[in-house]
Design brief:
It is globular, with a radius of gyration of 16 Å. The two termini are 20 Å apart. By secondary structure, it is an alpha+beta fold. Strand 2 and strand 3 form a beta hairpin. A three-stranded antiparallel β-sheet has the order 1-3-2. It has one domain: Orthogonal Bundle (Arc Repressor Mutant, subunit A), CATH 1.10.10.
Length: 110
């Protein structure tokens, strides 16, 4: 499975996880995702904003405009209480999935 396929299936959960820590705007999300994943995840606008809009439409995140440092207003996103519940469910499922995969995969390949 390619990195792109793995990301596609987990984009929204990754975004909810980031936004559970603090509200962020688009560019900040991209940079934080890249930083925390040591460059593994590099979101592009074509991936990020459609995912944020899906999350917003589902009521899992809310967006609001805020002016920062007297520059143009930025759209910040924060997780909602519904989003926190969904994130908890997804993380629990991810842990079960990960344990199941780890129990089958070899610890190392020669």
């Amino acid at each position: 499975m390619s990195q792109k396929e793995l990301l596609k299936g987990n984009t929204e959960t990754l975004l909810l996880s980031l936004l559970a820590g603090e509200a962020m705007y688009g560019y900040q999300i991209v940079k934080e995702m890249e930083k925390r994943s040591s460059g593994y995840f590099r979101f592009k606008e074509g991936t990020l904003y459609p995912a944020l809009h899906r999350l917003e439409k589902a009521g899992l995140v809310e967006g609001y405009w805020e002016e920062v440092d007297s520059v143009l207003p930025r759209r910040f996103y924060h997780i909602t209480s519904k989003g926190e519940k969904v994130l908890e469910e997804r993380l629990n499922e991810w842990r079960r999935f990960s344990r199941a995969v780890d129990s089958i995969m070899p610890a190392h390949v020669s």
